[in-house]
Every structure is written in structure tokens, then in C-alpha cells.
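ok so I'm stuck.
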Amino acid sequence: MITTETRRELAVGQYDFAQTARAHDQNDGQARICDAKAIGQQAAKQFHAFGADAKRALFQLITTGIAFFVMLAIIAWASRDIYWLALLLAVPTAGLLVRLFIVQHDCGHGSYFKSRLANDYVGRAISILTLTPYGYWKQGHAIHHASSGNLDRRGRGDVEILTVSEYQALSA
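replied:
not stuck anymore, here's the structure
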């Protein structure tokens, strides 16, 4: 059962999950399962407020997009005579492009906007900048999430991992 103290710690982000796991490792594990379920339920309630918010999403998209295009314009201007400035500005501009890819990623999960259509339109528009085909990436990424951690379904979007027997077979 989750205690009032645990609820308070969760609310302010100070709950020590590792300590709880260590404490319950000495028991039969039953208390750990109950505690994990209760913590999961409380965390779901706590973070429910962080769902898709169109106003926040548009603000982030517009500010990141404007900053990205302004930086591209400055780089284009500086590349005529001031090469060092163009190279220097390439680093934060790349960071903004990564941020745009993160937005595209969230759109691919359908979590950036509440509307699936809005997620797909924005994701496709950003994919032009990131040079990542949105539909193909969205499908491949969904397969990656569906098979993540399943060694029998390895291959798409995974870091190459070998079992001990596979590794030993390579070195034989």
C-alpha cells in the first residue's frame, strides 16, 4: 500500500525508487510488486497533467522553427565572408534541428498534439527539414517499440546485441 509520505515525495519529485527496490529485495518480492503498482498509479495521476497541450506545443514549435530559420539565414549571410562565424553558428543550429526532430518524433508517437491529423501534418513538414521520410520512419519506429527487448524480433532500430551463445559462436 502506498503511504501518505510516499505520495508527498512523489508530488515533489523526491521519491527514491532505488531505495524502495533495495528494501524489498530482502523480502519475498510481494511487497515490491504492490508498492510498484501503487507508485505507478500515483505517478500516472501526477503526470496526467503533462499530456498534449496545443498552446504549449505551438509555442515550442514556433520558437524553435523561427530560431532555426534565423540561424540558417545568418549562416547563409556569414558564409560569404565570415566563415568562422558560419561554422560557429552551425553548432547551435544543429541543436535546433535536433529539437525539431524531437518534435517530429513526438508527432510520430501521436503525443505532440491531441489530433492525429495535426501530428501527421507537422511531422511530415518537419521531416522535410530533417531529411527523414515521416511515414517510413513512423512505421519503423512503431515496429522498434513493439519489438524492443525481444531478442527473437531484433533488427529494426536496435543496437546490435548478441546473446552469450551467439558471441561464443562468433569467436569459435
